[in-house]
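User: I'm curious whether this sequence folds into something compact or stays loose and floppy. Could you predict its structure so I can see for myself?
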Amino acid sequence: AAAATHVAIDDTVIAKLVDEMPPEVVATMLGPRDFDVDEIHFLDASDEDLTARYLLCVDAINFCFWPDHDGDGGASLLAWQRDFGCDDKQLAGDPDLLYWQNAFKGDAKPKDLSGDKQGLEYEHVAGGLKRALTRDDDALDVDKLKAMTGTRLRELLKWPRPLPLEEERARLLREVGTQLDVLWDGSAAKMIRAARQSAPALVDIVAKTFPGFRDVAVYARDGMQCFLYKRAQIFVGDVWGRFGGAGLGDFADSIKELTMFADYRVPVVLRNLGVLRYDENLSVKVDRAVGTIPAGSDEEVEIRACSVQAVERIRALLEKRLEVEHELQPVAGLGPGLTSVAIDWYLWGVGEKDRDEGPPHHRTITVFY
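Assistant: Here's the prediction. I'll summarize afterward.
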């Protein structure tokens, strides 16, 4: 971030943002309680391994949603019904299928859908796999993951058309199944326990176990490696959040060592707030959606690295604010205190609420975010 030429961080804006942040907003960043406010994630309180494996599968395919925004209206619904061989009468007998049919028709408008123009979003993946487990708790068994295909994944999610990078998503789920089987006796919980309650250690284990999680770039200007590990870190954050910082999700204060998760959504929020500033050429590319920004390019690495650094600066100033705002201190005492993970959740949520009407994000074809 210090060597960036295309992206700049405005510390004056950060100071103003932190100073004006309402106490109730700051309070949401002091623990894992805001993880699943929309209730889209699976949890089986009696089967922590299945819950952990579900999170690992979600984060294995948590990337590159935007190419699916085709806005083809009723054509998607018709193709979807054709692909699944369902007519309206058959759909009426299946609440899960009916949910999607109504959404594509525009009859139902939950938070995660916007009528027949809705493209794939994170909640379709997290919620889709949750519903798959509700229908069949063996849906994500290791043997089934090892045999995953693009078509099968689409069926699990009940998605109406080919997924963006569908075969890559299927390949990465096969990798999850294979590596869990070979290295961890098929158990995601066993893998998590091997980290001995250390969040950074678990990030390292995930990256070593699954090549598809090794999110590393080389910054061409100085040849330095940039370890971003978005999906590896978000998996650890999800485990912390889903289990409420207890049991399998107890990482004690080590959760504070994770950074934000450098993706599409948070950078556009930071830019919209004025925290990030792009140079003229990069601004044109992003604002006019002129092609894609290549993965590993200076511009793409700077957007992500500066986002990480900006959130760290936000956190540093918030920590100073907490030192003098005693009304928040008892809340902070209940957990690890302020984390970049929870700041990311807050910023990501802001971006999600504004995603249909807000400014465009940068576009990069990648399996890492």
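Summary: The longest helix spans residues 298-324. The radius of gyration is 21 Å.
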